[in-house]
Amino acid sequence: EVEKIRIKITSLGLTESRITADETIQQLFVECRLNSFIAEETPLSLPKPTGGQRIHYNYSTVINVGKEDNHAEREYLKSILLKPDLPADSLKFTVVSDPPEDEQDLECEDIGFAYVSLKEIFQKQRDIIEQDIDVLDSQDASTVIGKLTVTVEALSALRSVHEECKND
After folding, report:
1. What is the distance, to the nearest Å, from the Cα of residue 8 to the centroid of all Cα atoms in its chain?
2. DSSP-based three-state secondary structure for 70
3. pLDDT tens per residue across span 114-165
4. Distance from first CA to last CA of the chain, Å, rounded?
5. What is the DSSP string of 84-97?
6. Measuring CA to CA, which residue among 29, 12, 35 is closest to residue 94?
7. How far is CA 26 from CA 39, 96, 154, 157, 159, in A?
C-alpha cells in the first residue's frame, strides 16, 4: 500500500473582521502546503461567505509519501517525528483572496493561515476528521478571522515512517 496523507478542505466560515469588511475581498480559495514541498489549492474560488454562512469547497487531495519516489517528503516526516523542537511540523492552509475578473491588476492576497500539526496527530494517534480549525489573520496572528473545516488523514503514513526510523 502506498502511504498517503489525505487532505480534505470541506468548508470555510468567517467571523466579523477586517476581511468581512473589506469589499475588495470577494472570492476566496484555499491552498494547502506541506513544508516547502507540495502546494495544492482548491480548483474553485468561491464568493466570500457573509454573516455566519459557510462556503463549501469539498475538495480532497492526496500527498503521496510512499518510499519509492518521495524521499524528501519522507525525510521531512521523519524529522517531524525525531526532532521534537522542529517548528515547521504542520500542514499549512492559506486562505487566499482571488481578485475579481475585472480587476486583474490586483494580486492574489494571503488573508489568513490555519495549521494542522502532523506531530500532534502522531502523538495522539488519531487523524483529524471534519474538524474546525482556526484561521488566523495574516496581518495579526492573534486574531481569529474564521474557521476552516478540514480532514487530515496522516496517521498510517506517520506510523510507517516511524517504523522506518526505528529500523534505520
Report:
1. 9
2. coil
3. 999 999 999 999 999 999 999 999 999 999 999 999 999 999 999 998 888 8
4. 20
5. TT-S--EEEEEEEE
6. 29
7. 22, 10, 33, 37, 41
Per-residue model confidence as pLDDT tens digits over 59-103: 999 988 888 888 888 888 988 888 766 666 789 999 999 987 777
Tell me whether residue 49 is exposed, middle or buried, using C-beta atoms within 10 angstroms of its C-beta: 0 to 12, 13 to 18, 19 or more: middle
- At 107, list the grid cell: 494580486
* Domains of the chain listed by start with CATH number: 4-167 (2.60.40.150)
Question: In whole angstroms, how far apart are CA 126 and each of 3, 155, 162?
Answer: 16, 6, 15
**Using alpha carbons only, how large is the chain's radius of gyration in Å?**
17
DSSP secondary structure of 44-61? --EEPP-TT-EEEEEEEE
Instruction: Return the C-alpha cell found at 99.
Output: 481578485
In the DSSP assignment, the letter for residue 150 is: E
Nearest-angstrom CA–CA distance, 82 and 89: 11
Q: Grid coordinates standing for 13? A: 466560515
